[in-house]
Amino acid sequence: MAPGDTGVEQPRKAHRVAKSGAKVRKKKGKCAAGDDEGGERKNPKAFAFRSATKAKRLQSRSAEIEQRRLHVPIMDRSIGEPPPFVVVVQGPPQVGKSLLIKCLVKHYTKQNLSDVRGPITVVSGKSRRVQFLECPSDINGMIDAAKIADLALLLIDGSYGFEMDTFEFLNIMQVHGFPKVMGVLTHLDQFKDVKKLRKTKQRLKHRFWAEIKEGAKLFYLSGLIHGKYTKREVHNLARFISVIKPIPLSWRMAHPYLLADRFEDVTSSESVRLNRKCDRKITLYGYLRGCNMKRGTKVHITGAGDFSLSGVTSLADPCPLPSAAKKRGLRDKEKLFYAPMSGLGDLLYDKDAVYININDHLVQFSNTDDNNASKKQGKGNDVGVALVKTLQNTKYSLDEKLDQSFINFFGRRPAAQSEDSDMTGNAISSRQNDQGEANILAQVGGNNLSSAGTLESNGHSSSECSSDSEGDNDDDIQPSDHGVDLREEVEFCNGRMRRKAVSANFQDDDDDDDDGSDNEDDSHNEDSDDDHLSEGSLSSDGSGEALDSDDGTENTSKWKKSLLARTLARRGASLMQLVYGQASAELDNDSGEEGSSDEEIFVPKGQKKQVKNELPSFDDIDAEDYSKFLKVELRDWSNEDLIKSIRDRFVTGDWSKASLRGREVDENGEGDEEIDGDFEDLETGEVHKSQAAESAAGKPGVQKEDELKVEELRLKKLALKAKFDSEYDGSDLSGEEVDNEKKKSKREQPDAGGYFDKLKEEIELRKQMNVSELNDLDEDTRVEIEGFRTGTYVRLEIHGVPYELVEHFDPCHPILVGGIGLGEENTGYMQVSLKRHRWHRKVLKTKDPIVVSIGWRRFQTTPVYAIEDRNGRHRMLKYTPEHMHCFAMFWGPLAPPKSGVLAVQSL
Ligand SMILES: Nc1nc2c(ncn2[C@@H]2O[C@H](COP(=O)(O)OP(=O)(O)OP(=O)(O)O)[C@@H](O)[C@H]2O)c(=O)[nH]1
């Protein structure tokens, strides 16, 4: 019987909506397109909230999500070049840490590293340096390394699997601020079965993700080729390293710290000899990180204790970033690296010296076979080699030489004479140049001399060694002409160091006479000799006789004439003369001299005036006519006021006035109108009056106001620029418009973005203002106020360090120097919240010593465990609870609240 026959309606099978297939896909596509086109418009009700409560809840939820995403903007206080990015390579023993560092260094620098000891700095890009550090396998080393790592490369032996070292390190990092982490699997070539390899990779990856986070980067180094990891894999790893940005960690941002890449014990050897265990003086070098370090800061050296800094000096960057020239790639020459502990880097910078490492086998420095060596080498003497060899012959230190030298303003005497004149080749030629330059300078010298310390200046082999500057004693000594050695006699006379050049085997009669007169009466000589000096400079214009007559004394001897003639002959090509002509140069000399001769030391006043009144005679008919220029240049130097006005421009004057000079106006009204004339700042439309005009109008205050205005304007411009930089998104909208645009684009939370951006902008503004203010200061004041900036390569000098630090110094163990903040140098009781780690088998017992690591410090202490009861009282516990937090109270150096704490029972 057919079912229909009964007359009873059978329930129909419900329509099954197709969930897959072409139709569904088509339909879905349509829907999606409709949505895109504006599904809301077509059927607005379908997308509207049905319930106000639900709407509110959804809104608040999205707001919450957005708020959680936002962080309080932190001011990035670093100015200038950032310090190198610290990459800590960690892993169990024999996993391939050293090999990986070597391969990476090779990749970046094309240099083979024989030994990995201490931090290795390499330039990895145009604006980036990387510092590799191999993490030691002991707990102390791991703790220290975790505190400075910007990126941790966790090496895992793939053929073996994870080892505890990796997890311990991960846990340490979690406590002390988690930096970026990447895993690297090595020893994968030991898998013979590809399938097994694939499975192991998967397993290890997921384990790694579980420990860090889903998607954490894990690299595979598939094996070795010629004992090195394959280039391709190293290249990929290097690429990843170079794009990672460090995470700003609050502890590190608030404390200055450095990873010492060089360590020197500078204790005097005598005190070490007397007592081997005496406290030592050490110097530590490294890039400053975290925040600026001020001079008085106390520091903690991990493993050694707290010390106050005896000295902080900023040094030249040993591994500078390549210049920001417009180049695309990084040239090979600029691929620098620096690793003094590994014996790399040929230059070592110290406070007052630079050390150059040259392999002994490359160059022979011994003095004996000097000539033979150069012959053997075949090529001519290298400049560097010659320099080093000349250094061997140096008998006097630079300080001594400086003491014995003097500045020669008005003559042809070598600028800084000293002993090491047996320099050869380039050294000498450079010296000659110096002397040539000295000629341009005007002559001031004095009637020096006498002699106490003897200084041989035997090697003035060239014509420069003529010492014609001082009138009386050294005038006729010309060892170059006669092949005679010069001896220099130094004495302290009339309040300054003076030198006398005495030839050992050559005596000049004139010289003798002169010396005799010198010795007779020093005070008399002062005047007369100064006259000679002025003669020296004036005589060049050919008016020697007039000068002689000026003297009016018996000084009109013949030798003087010959001296003048010689001086003239030797005068040679003066740059001044070549450019401006003889007359002009002389006039300049004159004026310069008179400017300086207003110092009573050199010329008696009466005589000076006499000289001044006699203008040089330009009787040389062959000379070109410079009169036109002269007219422009001439000033009335008989005017006392005019002379006074330039008095402070000389060594003996008041230099502090120099800064104010620009603001002062010549009393004569002469002057700088052309230079400091009115002008209009086209950008601002502001008209700047000349200073002279302003002060003439009797408005000294106006100028100050103007300066303030200019400064304000500059700051405003800077702030605007900063704002633009921070907001730049390619559009040329104004600040508010940009804000609006951003608000529109952030549908989820329209207000927070605006506020957030404003906050950021404010911070950037403040930073720019600070920077501009600080940059206006001179270096010392800036350092005093701001401290040494991060990224600076600094040298820290620390006294009273226990000898064990020096004795047991191990370059493979990082030396971390951390600045101690206010209140952190005190000791006291601390209360921390503690939980037994799941790997620690036993519970901890009260008063059992543990090693605690907080902040920069590691120290041993005996904690008392406690738990908070319901009534709020702390009840002491004999043992820590199994799986719960409890309190631990212990004595130790204090750390600020919220610092991460880590405790280990044994090292
Ligand atoms: N077959 C194979 N050998 C490797 C691999 N990685 C490293 N090695 C070898 O493992 C040995 C140890 O390498 P190192 O770089 O000294 O390891 P390390 O971690 O620095 O060792 P420690 O400093 O003693 O902790 C070397 O002989 C390497 O050649 C790898 O992926 N495959």
UniProtKB/TrEMBL annotation:
A Pfam family this chain is assigned to: AARP2CN
Acidic residues biased stretches: 467-478, 507-532, 587-601, 728-739
UniProt subcellular location: Nucleus, Nucleolus
Chief location category: nucleus
Record's catalysed reaction(s): GTP + H2O = GDP + phosphate + H(+)
Bias type Low complexity, positions: 457-466, 535-546
Positions with biased composition (Polar residues): 447-456
Gene Ontology, cellular component aspect: 90S preribosome; nucleoplasm; small-subunit processome
Coiled-coil spans in chain: none
Chain intervals with Basic residues compositional bias: 13-30
Bms1-type G domain: residues covered: 82-247
Keywords: ATP-binding, GTP-binding, Hydrolase, Nucleotide-binding, Nucleus, Phosphoprotein, Ribosome biogenesis
Protein's UniProt keywords contain NAD: no
Listed InterPro entries: AARP2CN, Bms1/Tsr1, Bms1_N, BMS1_TSR1_C, G_Bms1/Tsr1_dom, P-loop_NTPase
Annotated GO biological process: endonucleolytic cleavage of tricistronic rRNA transcript (SSU-rRNA, 5.8S rRNA, LSU-rRNA); maturation of SSU-rRNA from tricistronic rRNA transcript (SSU-rRNA, 5.8S rRNA, LSU-rRNA)
Region (Disordered): 1-45, 447-484, 501-558, 586-614, 686-705, 728-753
GO MF term (any one): U3 snoRNA binding
PROSITE patterns reported for this sequence: G_BMS1
Presence of the UniProt keyword Phosphoprotein in the record: yes
Family per similarity comment: Belongs to the TRAFAC class translation factor GTPase superfamily. Bms1-like GTPase family. BMS1 subfamily.
Name of protein: Bms1-type G domain-containing protein
